[in-house]
């Protein structure tokens, strides 16, 4: 049977869609951090997770000690450091290359209050009750063992400390809000408020 050009194009589109779907399923089943080789995507606009929206939710104050988990190339960190100055922004990432890139960018901007640390969100290398606030944006879904990561964040936050979690599409690792809330509350957080929708949101929790 002869297949026409339009039919071939249709079949090719179907196959392409199937391959993309398999990729999404694999990504959901095997979460992982954005590799350094793909760092350019970290600088793309984030309509649901803008910096000013994060600032409104986090309510950072000058002099505070704040933690960002998964800063990547510094999309938020380079601004958050200025929000808390003369306080400290601690930035933890799995990839040393990302931390090095972020710190080069910080030096170019004369930002001196970012403290980078390579480490795992499931075993934070910080003392108990050592931060006023913490945030992670488009990061929690990349962690294998999200419950452990949330328990660690609760441990390092002071009583009443603030945690902001941001998630949005088209990230294949996106954590739905309902699942996030149940996990965060099981880890010892109290839900405060949320901005956004099912397409993308920022949620604020309090420790204890």
UniProtKB/TrEMBL annotation:
<keyword id="KW-0808">Transferase</keyword>
<protein>
    <submittedName>
        <fullName>Methyltransferase type 11</fullName>
    </submittedName>
</protein>
<keyword id="KW-0489">Methyltransferase</keyword>
<feature type="domain" description="Methyltransferase type 11">
    <location>
        <begin position="67"/>
        <end position="165"/>
    </location>
</feature>
<dbReference type="GO" id="GO:0032259">
    <property type="term" value="P:methylation"/>
</dbReference>
<dbReference type="Pfam" id="PF08241">
    <property type="entry name" value="Methyltransf_11"/>
</dbReference>
<dbReference type="InterPro" id="IPR029063">
    <property type="entry name" value="SAM-dependent_MTases_sf"/>
</dbReference>
<dbReference type="GO" id="GO:0008757">
    <property type="term" value="F:S-adenosylmethionine-dependent methyltransferase activity"/>
</dbReference>
<dbReference type="InterPro" id="IPR013216">
    <property type="entry name" value="Methyltransf_11"/>
</dbReference>
